[in-house]
Amino acid sequence: GAGVSQSPSNKVTEKGKDVELRCDPISGHTALYWYRQSLGQGLEFLIYFQGNSAPDKSGLPSDRFSAERTGGSVSTLTIQRTQQEDSAVYLCASCLGGLSRSPLHFGNGTRLTVT
Amino acid sequence: GDSVTQMEGPVTLSEEAFLTINCTYTATGYPSLFWYVQYPGEGLQLLLKATKADDKGSNKGFEATYRKETTSFHLEKGSVQVSDSAVYFCALSDLSPSNTGKLIFGQGTTLQVKP
Questions:
Q1: Beta carbons within 10 angstroms of residue A28's beta carbon
Q2: Measured between CB atoms, does B57 come within 8 Å of chain A?
Q3: Would you say B32 and B49 are in contact if contact means Cβ atoms under 8 Å apart?
Q4: Is the predicted pLDDT of residue B98 greater than 80, yes or no?
């Protein structure tokens, strides 16, 4: 009965370095989302995977951001050449099939600090 | 594009006070509306939802009615408790077939209930 698991929980990196954030969704959940939560801001949509369909990448803020989902399960969000404005909490969420049938289940997030 | 606007916080109330957190939206299509809650140290979780106009979502004493004429989905509770202290997020999703199903969130409203 594990929930959505994200790792690491905290990441401090130097400006210009690449980082990878991992998300393990709930087993069997076909939909997976990445959001970003900056201090004092709402949740900013980044990318959405649904089954074998092409991902909705419309929220990725720049080409330094990319994400993949292997085997329809684990997802990795990669940020290249990190900038200070990338500092935020990165949230992953999954759901069973679609929002009309089940709620989003969120992980506790990865807090990224770029120094 | 679609968007959600919430009243700015923080909202500070005494225990047993009446709560209203305003939420308005702009959307094309036929959105479903949600309230998510983030308790201190925990991940976001669904509080309630409404999928069509005039529907009322309710859970844990909280209610919100989907008002299409005013494009609103205000969250209310008749008597708040200290344990309701959290950040509340209003969100929408266009569940029509042409939409990928992502949730658009408001900026969140912090509620602090004092004993």
A1: 10
A2: no
A3: yes
A4: no
| Probe site for chain A from B96, B103, B104, B110 (most A CB atoms < 10 A) | B103
Give pLDDT tens digits for A63-86.
999 999 988 799 999 999 999 999
Cβ distance of B106 and A109 shorter than 8 Å: no
Q: Say if residues B87 and B68 touch (Cβ distance below 8 Å).
A: no
State the pLDDT at residue B101.
67
Mean pLDDT of the residues in chain B: 91
Of A42, A48, A50, the CB nearest to B105: A42
Q: How far is A61 from chain B (nearest CA, A)?
A: 15
Query: Would you state the structure tokens that stand for residue A81, as one six-digit string?
Result: 């050449």
* Contact predicate B44/B35, CB 8 Å: no
Is B109:B21 a contact under the CB 8 Å cutoff? yes
Residues 56-75, chain A: which have Cβ within 8 Å of B? 56, 59
Query: In chain A, count of helices (H) and strands (E)?
Result: 0, 10
**Out of B95, B102, B105, closest to residue A48 by CB:** B102
